[in-house]
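Structure ticket #2291
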Amino acid sequence: ETLEKLIALEKKGVEAAEQNELDLAVQHFSACVDMWPWYPSAYNNRAQAWRMLGETKKAKEDVEESIKYAEGQGNEKVLKMAYAQSAVLKKNEGDLVGAEADLLKSARLGNEISKAAVKNNPYAKMCNAMVTELMAQ
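Resolution: structure written out below.
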C-alpha cells in the first residue's frame, strides 16, 4: 500500500513538472520523501525540479541522497539517472572533472544519453579508457 501511494505521488510530481508547475512537483516529491525517506527516485526527481527552479544547493543535496540510497539498494535504474543529473550540476558549477566522472558512471550503468555524450567527447573517452585500464590491473 505504501509503495502504491509513493508511485502515485511521484507520478503526480512528474506530471506537475511536465506542466512546468515546479513548486507543485517539489511538494509531491517532498511528500514521497516524507513518507519513505530512503526512496531514491523521489530525491532524484526533486533534485531535477530544484535544478529547474535554480535551487542548485538543494538540487545537489537531493542528488547526493538519491545516489546514496540507490547505491545502497542496488537500484541501477535510478543510479544511472542520478549520476547523469549530478554530472549536469557539477558541469554547471565548473567541476568538469567531477562532471566527466559522473557522466562515465551514468554511461556504464546504461544511460543512453550519457553513452552518447561519452562517445562524442574525446576527453571522456580518454578517461573511460584510463579507468578501464586501472580496473583491469
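Closing remark: The mean pLDDT is 86.
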